[in-house]
Write a structure and sequence with these properties.
10 helices, 274 residues, binds uracil, alpha/beta, binds iron/sulfur cluster
């Protein structure tokens, strides 16, 4: 049975999360309370078992997505992951000339984070700052992404962050289809190595690619999708949020991220280990 004190403490934690998104109010319905309760009981799952394809409560509503062949190889150990990722970066991505973006890049941007991360964010492509530093999401959009992650009660180092293309498209244009096609084998390999529990796509280009979908962000976001047996949540790109910093958009992103936290068995918003 629900303990009212516990529910209150959770509500206050949740409010902290809401305020991290600049939201003042919290809509607390019974579904939300259930989510809070569910978040308290992370399933103790053996590490090597594959992530659940469907969360029990959402199983019926999940659309069937293309590209859903599950990875079958066992998950690598952490040291193996570290070395596989470093090898891919050094021997394949850094010297990559598979598409025209190699001509204008200053640095490739492999991605970074915890190789055992449960949550894997996919942005669009490096911008100017990212190209200069060789790291993903280090500019203004990155600042907001960091805030979003902090609002989830996590540190950036606890998740993994990549882009669909590893080199900056000139003038920050959307990556062209042939560039995406050339580059995404790296992304797929990163996912195969890391095997997160949840993928969060940021913005339409990464959602479109992952789900082979023509639907709008409004239709895609907020719902669970399936990518090769890994649950995928599309949400707005932080750069879009910066341009359209409305209560409605922030609430939408926060609502999507709360679903992610619940799915990975973390409290809402959770406490960061300081
Ligand atoms: N926007 C992105 O999509 N990726 C980055 O790394 C930075 C900004
Ligand atoms: Fe290679 Fe990807 Fe860079 Fe194109 S964007 S050159 S495919 S690493």
């Amino acid at each position: 049975m629900a303990d009212p004190d516990l529910a209150k403490r959770r509500l206050s934690l949740r409010l902290r999360g809401e305020s991290a998104f600049g939201l003042k109010s919290v809509a607390m319905d019974s579904k939300g309370l259930h989510a809070l309760q569910a978040a308290k009981q992370p399933a103790a799952r053996p590490k090597a078992s594959p992530p659940p394809l469907l969360a029990s409560t959402e199983a019926e509503s999940l659309p069937v997505e293309p590209n859903s062949t599950e990875f079958t190889d066992p998950v690598a150990s952490r040291p193996e992951k570290v070395s596989l990722l470093a090898n891919m970066d050094i021997s394949q991505v850094k010297p990559c000339v598979r598409c025209r973006l190699c001509k204008t890049r200053k640095n490739t941007v492999f991605g970074e984070g915890d190789p055992d991360a449960a949550i894997f964010f996919i942005g669009e492509g490096p911008g100017e700052n990212e190209d200069l530093q060789g790291r993903p999401f280090v500019g203004r959009a990155g600042e907001l992404l960091n805030k979003m992650i902090a609002g989830m009660g996590l540190r950036r180092e606890q998740v993994f962050i990549v882009n669909i293309v590893k080199c900056r498209p000139p003038d920050n244009r959307v990556p062209a289809p042939d560039e995406v096609e050339a580059c995404t084998p790296y992304l797929v390999k990163q996912l195969e190595i890391i095997r997160p529990k949840v993928i969060v796509t940021l913005g339409l280009p990464s959602a479109k690619y992952m789900l082979a979908s023509k639907l709008s962000m409004g239709k895609l976001r907020g719902q669970w999708h399936n990518w090769r047996g890994i649950k995928l949540m599309p949400t707005y790109h932080p750069a879009f949020l910066l341009r359209a910093y409305t209560e409605e958009n922030r609430a939408a992103v926060w609502s999507d991220l709360k679903k992610v936290l619940t799915e990975v068995g973390l409290p809402i918003p959770g406490k960061s280990a300081k």
